[in-house]
Design goal:
elongated; mainly alpha; 69% helix
Length: 131
């Protein structure tokens, strides 16, 4: 299963409603849906899109933007959504991984993220970025 999803705008809005109503939605899938809607012709501007997400679904701009960036990174490296979903990591951990993951080290970073607190992961990612 690839990270990118192909769906109509109407289906993506339905999926967004369903995912945002879940207590712990699969964040990589949520990010994919946000990507589809961001790239659709429904919204005249990004500001309008982010405003709509906030007012309709309670998804703030920063969270949406970070999930979109993570989803784009996953698509760029050809990563499997199954691996990410199996890790059951929350959006904060996944977003921290965005600048350091690639096709070769994805498994390592997912494993590390499962073992570390947010503060520990932030520190380790910071060291990896500085190296």
């Amino acid at each position: 299963m690839n990270v990118s999803i192909k769906t109509s705008d109407k289906e993506a809005i339905y999926l967004l409603g369903y995912l945002s109503s879940q207590k712990n939605p699969p964040v990589c899938l949520l990010g994919n849906v946000l990507c589809v809607l961001k790239d659709s012709s429904i919204f005249k501007s990004l500001d309008g899109y982010f405003s709509w997400l906030s007012s309709e679904y309670g998804i703030e701009k920063r969270k949406a933007y970070n999930l979109i960036e993570f989803s784009n990174k996953m698509a760029d490296i050809g990563a499997s959504i199954d691996k990410v979903m199996a890790s059951k990591l929350g959006w904060t951990h996944l977003v921290l991984l965005t600048p350091v993951i690639n096709a070769e080290n994805l498994d390592y970073w997912l494993d590390r993220a499962c073992q570390l607190t947010t503060a520990e992961l932030k520190k380790e990612v910071g060291m990896a970025k500085a190296a």
